Amino acid sequence: MSSTPTVSESVPYKVADLGLADEGRRLIDWAESRMPVLMAIREECSKTKPLAGQRIAGCLHVTKETAVLIRTLRAAGAEVAWSGCNPLSTQDAVAAALADEGVHVYAWYGQDTEGFYWSIDRTLDFRPTLTLDDGADLIFRVHDKYPDLIPGIIGGSEETTTGVHRLRAMAADGKLGYPVVAVNDSETKWDFDNVYGTGQSSLDGILRATSVLLAGKDFVVAGYGHCGRGCAMRAAGMGARVIATEVKPTAALKAVLDGHRVMRMDEAAAVGDIFITATGMKDVIVGRHFEVMKDGAIVCNTGHYDCEINLADLEAMAESKRTVRDNCVEYTLRDGRRIYVLADGRLVNLAAAEGHPSEVMDMSFADQFQAMKLLAEKGRELDNAVHVLPEELDQEIALIKLTAMGSRIDELTPEQLAYLDDYSQGT
Ligand code: 9W4
């Protein structure tokens, strides 16, 4: 897909092919037309310039939606240097468009580990005042290799649950050199990403990889957390009959009250036409489940890792295997049954579709922007710990989104507000 990356002596960027810039601009413009919250923030902040004087180093998927965030950070006055946080998520056309717009971007599809760290290091040459992370690689790199940069850094933000978990451990050990905002903990990020983003994009991945009819199928969702619930909701919406499997009673109860059947995987394995794992746990579908599956069963994963489906078990049971479509491998078992595995058991919504729709990333990246703004304004007052964005910002972002989508909501009157606090009236 990408040509050999080239680096120019005179301009600070490294991308696969600058010739892709036009294509990249079209992608970014499309995303912008779907991201009203960031665009509203951009309009406001291009006047007030809350990030004037800030140098932001970012390490986050180089996608069309990230480019909308980058353009917004720059419109708010920041200088920006960027690298991708996963070599397989970089969209070369987007990277080219960003380089062409004057962003110090170091990212190309399929870069190796050396290229990955080289790219991060180039963004640190820039001596950032703020860092923006997805997976905390940038923050770790600063602490491990460039501690001299720490006094100049006001703060950082982190997108993922895993990254935040590690940063909290670092803070608890007194090792975190600057304050970090955990963007993931905002409701407008995790709730909407997981339910609506993962729900739609996982179904999108299944359909792109198979083009099967969902209506009338028995659709097994392993794990009824936010992602599982999103998948179940969308599958049911297209006429599938959902079966949820769970280990947690409250989650299973939610599935039942949402109108789904709940069973053990040992039982569901023989009933399901399509299986999707969304648990974050290993070995959710293993050999004994493949043993009883129907001929033609489709199996995929949208959980965190690629270990939820035990492919080694399936390989051992299979007589032959062939790729029948993009991201769809057919395993023929010794008794003639065929089982189809999508995207090699990796995240089907990323490998076979395009991840979260721009409309969902709009809110997650608005949270990233607000984290940068908060740190620029108040970062020096924060201690070196993991912080969350204030609840009012969540509400503000949701309100901008609602307004952009044409919905209006009520406001409490002063009398109603007083009624809330009034303890003299009983219940
Ligand atoms: N993308 C990704 C990761 C691995 C991967 C081998 C070829 C996450 C969030 C956002 O991780 C991301 N491996 C692939 S494709 C692929 C893609 N393979 C495996 O065989 C294919 C990723 C955030 N996001 C959205 O969801 C939408 N816009 C965004 O910025 C992006 C990418």
Structural write-up:
44% of the residues lie in helices and 16% in strands. The protein is of the alpha/beta class and 427 residues long. Strand 12 (274-277), helix 12 (287-292) and strand 13 form a beta-alpha-beta unit. The chain is globular and about 65 Å long. The model has no long low-confidence stretch (mean pLDDT 95). The longest helix is centred in the middle third of the chain and has 24 residues, at 187-210. The chain has two domains: 18-191 and 356-404, Rossmann fold (3-Layer(aba) Sandwich), CATH 3.40.50.1480; 198-351, NAD(P)-binding Rossmann-like Domain (Rossmann fold, 3-Layer(aba) Sandwich), CATH 3.40.50.720. The strands form three sheets. It has an eight-stranded mixed beta sheet. The protein has a seven-stranded parallel beta sheet with strand order 5-4-3-6-7-8-17, with helices on both faces. Strands 1-2 form a two-stranded antiparallel ribbon. It starts with 5 loop residues before the first strand and ends in a 6-residue tail after the last helix. The chain has helices at 21-32, 36-48, 64-75, 92-100, 113-125, 137-145, 161-172, 187-210, 226-237, 249-257, 265-268, 287-292, 311-317, 348-351, 358-378, 391-404, 414-421; strands at residues 6-7, 14-15, 55-59, 79-83, 104-106, 130-133, 155-158, 180-182, 218-222, 241-245, 261-262, 274-277, 297-301, 318-325, 328-333, 338-342, 386-387. Ligand 9W4 binds next to helix 3 and helix 14.
